[in-house]
Design brief:
This protein has 269 residues and is an alpha+beta fold. The chain contains 11 helices and 7 strands. The strands form 3 sheets. Strands 1-3-2 form a 3-stranded antiparallel β-sheet.
Length: 269
Amino acid sequence: MPESFDTPNESFPKPAAIGEVDKDIVVHALDQCDRSPPTMSSREIAELAGKEHRHVLRDGEVMLKALDLPVEGYVQNWTHPQNGQTYRELALPKDLAITLVSGYDVKTRHKIVVRWQELETRKLQPAPAALSRLDLIQLALAAEQELQAERGQRLQLEVVNAELAPKADAFDLIAASDGSVTFTQATKVLGIKMAVLTAWLNANRWAYRQNGSWVAYRPQIENGRLEYKEANYTDQKTGMACCRPYCHITPKGLAKLATVFAGELKRAA
C-alpha cells in the first residue's frame, strides 16, 4: 500500500518547461494518441461514484495486486490546477475499470458504462477533414511561439519596472523633502550613512572638504544640485551671534542622489 493516497507525489518529477517544438515529436505523439486505447482515471471514477479519490485509489491498488498486475504500471501523475501539486492516480483500461466498480452500487456501474461508451465513441470518430496532421503541427508551433512571445513581454516588463523603480523612489524623496537640506538631513532621507554620502560627493566632484566645512564645486551650483544657505549660530568662544553659509543639497540634487543610492534604499527598507 502506498504511504499516502492524495498527497503530493515527490517521486514523480514535474514536466520540464516546454522549449522549441520538434515536428517529429509532435507527429510521434499524435500517432501514439491515435493508437493508444482509451483509459479512465481513478479520479474520474471517484467523481462518478461520489467517493473520495483516496478510497478508489486504494481499491484499485488492491484489485491490481489481486490480479498479479504491477501497480506502478498503471500509475500516472495528475497536477492540481490551483496549487500546482502533483498527485498519484491510476489510469485503467476498460476491463480493469469495470472490474473495479463491479462491487459498487448499480447506479455507479451504469455511470461507468455510459462513460466508457462516450470514450469509445470519441475514439472511433475521425478527426475533422479540415485539420490534417500538418495543420495540427502548425497549431502546436503557433501555440509555442505565442507562449515564447508572452514570456518575452513579461521579461521586458520586468526590465522596465527595474529601471523605473529608482526614479519612483527619487520622486517619493522629493515629496518628502521641503526645500534644500543639509548633508545630515540628506542622509536621513536617503537612509545611508554620512561617510557613504560624503565619500560619493567627493569622488564625483560634487563637494570637497576645506577647513572643516564642505565646499560645493561650482558646476554643481550652476546646475542647481547644490546651494549655500546662511546658518545662524552662537560662537562658543565669544558668545556672539554669527552667520555663516553652509552647503545644502537642493531637491534636484536629492532626486539624483536617490537614484544613485536606490540599492541602499531597498536594502534599508
